[in-house]
Every structure is written in C-alpha cells, then in structure tokens.
Amino acid sequence: MPENKIDFTTNELVTALISREIRDGDLAFVGVGTNGRAFTLAVGIPLTAVRLAQMTHAPAASVYWGNLLEPDLSSMPADLRQDSFTRWQAAACPSDTGVKCDMLARRAFDVCFDSGAQVDRFGNLNITAIGDYRKPKVRLVGCLAQPEHFAFVPRPIVVVDLDRRVFVEKVDFITSVGHLRGGTSRRDVGLSEGGPHIVVTDKAIFDFAPDTKAMRLRSLHPGVGLEEVFDNMGFRPVVPDEVPTTPSPNARELELIRQVIDPNRVLLRV
Amino acid sequence: MTDRTSKIGTIADAVALIPDGTRLAIGGFAIYQHPMAVVRELIRAGRKDLTVVGTVNGNEVDLLAGAGCLAKVETSYVGLEKFGLAPNFRRAIERGTLEVVDYSEILSFDRFRASQENLSFWPCDYLGGTDVLTHNKDIKPFTCPLTGRAMHAVPPADPDVVVIHAVAADRHGNVILPQRHLLPQSLDVIMARGCDTVIVTAETIVSDAEIRRHAAQVQIPSYKTTLVVEAPWGAHPCSVLGRYRADDAHFAEYIAASASADGFQRYIDRYVHGPADHMAYLALVGIKQLTSLTEIDRL
Known about the structure:
Chain A is an alpha/beta fold. Chain A is 27% helix and 16% strand. In chain B, helix 3 (59-66) crosses helix 4 and helix 5 runs parallel beside helix 7. Chain A: This is 3-oxoadipate:succinyl-CoA transferase subunit B.
C-alpha cells in the first residue's frame, strides 16, 4: 500500500477526480437525491466536484440543480431541499417544465451525475425494481429523468459504491440505456453517441472499452487491490495490462474542499 | 341569495367528484404542496380502484396506496426524497396488490402536454432499449411519416379529474400562483390545462378585488375550474411555497409508523379516520405545531 503524504478520505479522492473531468464551460445536471449515503453520491460529491473545478481549472463550469440554473456554489445552503434552496442566488430559476425538456432534448448539458441500485457490464442503470418487475423483491423509485440523461447528455458520470449486489452482469430492469449490449447496440436502437462516460466508486474508477463498450477498470484507489475489486463485482470488468492508481488530491484541492467548499461537512458527511 | 357564479364547495363536495375507479391527477411534486386534505378525505370516504396518473409523486400516493384506495399508478417517481423510499407504496407493489406503470420524468410531463393539446399520443424518440417499453403495451412503435425515423407513440395522461392545492383563489375559480414558484406549481398548471374537471383547494379564498390586483399571476383562469374549496394548511404535512414549511416531525412519525402495515393502520386511524374532517385534523395536529411551520413571503 503506497504511503500517502497527505491523508484524505475516499470521498475527497473521488471528488477531486471528478472535478478534473469537468471542462471549462461545462453545464452539469445534478439531481436532488435522497438522504444519507445516497445523498452524498447523487448530490454531495457532484456539487463539491463542480465547485472545485470552478475554483481551479474550469471557472465557467456551471450546474443545473432542482430548478436553479447556475446556482452560486460559493455558499451552500444549509437545508438542501427544493423549497429552501430556491432562495439561493442563481442566474435563473426557470419553473416551466418546458425549460427542462428543452435543455435535455436539445442537448444543453455536457455532464450529468447519476447513481443507481444496479449497474451492469455495459453501464445500463436500474433505479426502478429489483427482481421480477410485476412482483419485485424491492420496488425502487421509478425512472425519474434518468432515461433522458442517458439519452441526451454526452458524458454521464455514474457515482455508486462498489458492491456485488450493485455491479451485476445484467440489470433486472433497464431504466436508463447505457451502452445497452455493447458494440453498436446503443446506436442500433436509435440513441445518439454517448452513454456513461465513467463509473466512480469507492474502490476504483471504470470507463468503457471503445470497441466492445464493456466496463473497463481505469484506476484503483490507493491501497485497493484487484482481488478486492473483483470480490465486489458480479462480473469481471476489462482489465488493461497496466492499471494505474487513482491520482490523489493535492494539498490545494483538499484545502478548498475542507475549508472553503464544504467546511461544515454537509456535502461529504457520509 | 345564491351566487350563481360561485364555485365554492366543501372537501366532501370535492370527493363526491372523485368516485371509485376515477383516473386522478394529484397536484404537487415529490413531497411538496399536495392537496392532502382531499387525499385524507378520499380515504375517509373509502374510495377504491383509483388510478393516479402523475409525474413525480410522493407521500400523497404512499398514503392512498397504504389505505388500499389505488388500483394503478402511472408515474416517473414515487418516493419521499430526503425521507427515502415510499414504504406503503413499496409494500403494495411488492405484494402484487398495486400495479405501477413506469414512465420517464420528461415523458410523464409530455403526457400532460399531450392532454393539454387534446392529442391522442405524444411522440418519443428515445425509449429504445429501455424496459419501460418491455412492460408497457400501451406504448406503440411507429415510423415518423416525415423523416422515416423509428419512434414511439406514448398515450396521453388524460385524467378524469385533477385536484391541486394553491395559495389563493377567488370564488369563481381564478387561481393565483405566487411570483416565486417552482416546477411543482408549474406542473399543477399543466395538469389543470389538460382536464375538464379541475378541483382547487386553496389556503385562502380571496376577494374579486384581490384577484384583479394580481391578474398577471392568475395562471389557472376560472373557465378551467370546477370547484374551489378553502382548505387552510391543506397540504400539511407537505410544504406550501411561501406559506409554510414541511412538517418534518410529522413526516418522521409517518415514516416510523409505516415500517409495518399495522403501524401504518394505527397512523391512519389516528390522523385520517380519527378526525371527522379537515378542521378536526388540524386541531389534532395542533396550533402550536402548525404555527411553528409558518413562513412569510410575498405573492
């Protein structure tokens, strides 16, 4: 295990990694999320990452969240609910659903953040039901706008913890079409290029092989071995000959995350 | 003397417009601004076999599902946001006693847009590969006659009745939307446009003069409205934007009770069947609790 000069949490590691994926001028869709760990994955890490990108290399990156367009991420509201954060400073607060339809269908977004109960080898996501659809073992929330995210946003970033129950060979219900069955199958059903860009977990980062579109190990987090990753997956990802270590956050990034962006540990609490 | 232009009625009148088997759209969004006074009265009246057609649903559907009022839900979401999954909805689906028809969120708006235009379907070009298609035989493939593109025809929402909760309305059914409003309030307007039986409960019934001062904010004009009911705190325990916050303590009590079917039964015995009507419900919740949620905002 490599020795870290600076201590950092896994949340901080992946936040810094995601921030480097954000390009200047990107518009990112962030969902509203639920509670606990699910909130950290869907909202906390994405918002912190975009703010970190703004403060480092991407000052013109922005977010659409709830119905706030370009919310001022320099001060995060304490109560992160739709009816409270409308008082937050933003460029616009378009309440018309048509704006959301326009932004998605006419491809205003560059990046979106999504999480799920299941993700498979080709990056298809399930947030609808586990088990038999008609009499499921676990009924989940439904679809939300995730099918639209995966259809229309060029670089979806999936944020989810590595777990055998989550990383399955085939999702029980395809809520959102990733790379479908690999190869050209996504385009064959009429969807545009795109599909999930990377999958960010608490143990490793994945992307998708350009030809087969199968999930591929991109980097291992410091101190995590291959076996530990395989043990937590229901399928074997593509493994390149050389697997790098996920780059650590630098001192500046950690200082920004801890002291400026999320000083009260609201966003990266759990 | 009777006022022939008044559409004022009671919550019981509202429920009389929603018989068993109604295809119902309920205003609000997730855990915000649902017409809960009407929802509770539907349970008191023992309504059965309702279909809820919606976009993003929450505790209103969960309550109706737990009370056995529903046959079907067509939506993109049933959940309680920061309070997690919808426990009673979940239980009913997992037991196979409630049918759900899943739509994606934008498509669930589009279905109401189709109803607004009185169209027989809404065209969609991005459902390929999803299991939304696998399980929904009402969505039909077709080829775009202009471009030759493969598309899907999605059925409109077409609710029989829409019921929404607003901040203010007049006796004729002109409904005011506050200046500062969000998706939930805008969706209420789209729902109302696509339906010929629209029930509005309002925090306050205001004078004709008051409405005329706010004409620019009347987003649902009286021609759309069938019945207007004054229901102060009518969305409790949900929030009403600019009037009161969500009752988080009540939500927590609801979630704890809903851990089991028995616990949920005790909850509805206490909060739904116990009080005879909406005013008795408010008395049970208590003035101290209600006033602690007050939020002051301008229109």
